[in-house]
Write a structure and sequence with these properties.
4-stranded mixed sheet; 12 helices; 57% helix; 242 residues; single chain; alpha+beta
Length: 242
């Protein structure tokens, strides 16, 4: 049975998983699950991931949720080059150090930009200025840490070669970029890092993978016929922005 990846390319972690599988020539089938049509909340999808979150994976009878777990699984099963998820103890610890920090400081903050600037206005929900300012301040601090603690003067976040850290980090930053907040402006070191990551992955592949998020941000009204239950979920998500 073919490996199946359940994805919506509007999602940053979904894009990271897809890019990893494509670059490493892993055979898989994409199962499209449209978040803003509520398809991740169906009973059928719950059979794959009872958490009702994307991405998800099905490999035969084995199912798996959470993007980092999926990336680790794919790297081990398909014996991808060691630089993606190093077997060396200290190199792997350095990678995991970033991934744990990313989950709290990047993943937990940068995704809010899309909701504040694109999705909220689309459904006539506007975030108070003090919340917007607070999120921007958190982002500025995290960008400083990203450059000074992790990237430093290295080509990639954890060393001389690309790893899954670079993949998950860049897709989060590109989400803010398309939503109208250019995190690379005035940061030549970060912009150069982006260029190296995209050159390694393939610029055409990156553009194709990001087309859905580019289109959503450029034409928010292209997101039509949102189910009422999904609208309720979107309003709840917006209310949770700190």
């Amino acid at each position: 049975m073919a490996l199946k990846l359940y994805l919506d390319f509007i999602s940053q972690p979904c894009r990271a998983v897809y890019l990893f599988a494509k670059v490493n020539r892993i055979p898989f089938e994409v199962q499209s699950v449209q978040i803003f049509q509520g398809q991740h909340m169906t009973d059928d999808f719950a059979k794959v991931n009872s958490l009702k979150r994307l991405p998800a994976m099905k490999d035969g009878d084995f199912t798996l949720a959470e993007s980092v777990a999926i990336l680790h699984y794919l790297s081990q099963k398909y014996n991808t080059p060691a630089h993606w998820y190093p077997p060396d103890l200290q190199a792997r610890a350095r990678l995991e150090e970033y991934l744990y920090w990313h989950a709290d400081s990047i993943r937990g903050t940068f995704g809010s930009v899309l909701w504040i600037r694109v999705l909220g206005p689309l459904i006539d929900v506007h975030i108070p200025k003090e919340k917007v300012d607070r999120n921007i301040a958190f982002m500025m601090q995290s960008l400083q840490h990203l450059e000074q603690k992790f990237l430093q003067d290295k080509p990639f976040l954890t060393g001389e070669q690309i790893s899954v850290a670079d993949l998950v980090a860049l897709e989060e930053l590109m989400q803010t970029f398309y939503a109208g907040f250019d995190v690379f402006e005035g940061r030549p070191k970060l912009a150069a890092w982006r260029g190296r990551v995209e050159a390694t992955l393939g610029e055409k592949l990156c553009q194709e993978t990001r087309e859905a998020i580019r289109k959503l941000c450029a034409e928010p009204k292209s997101l039509k016929d949102i189910p009422s239950a999904t609208l309720d979920w979107m309003r709840l998500r917006l209310s949770k922005i700190p």
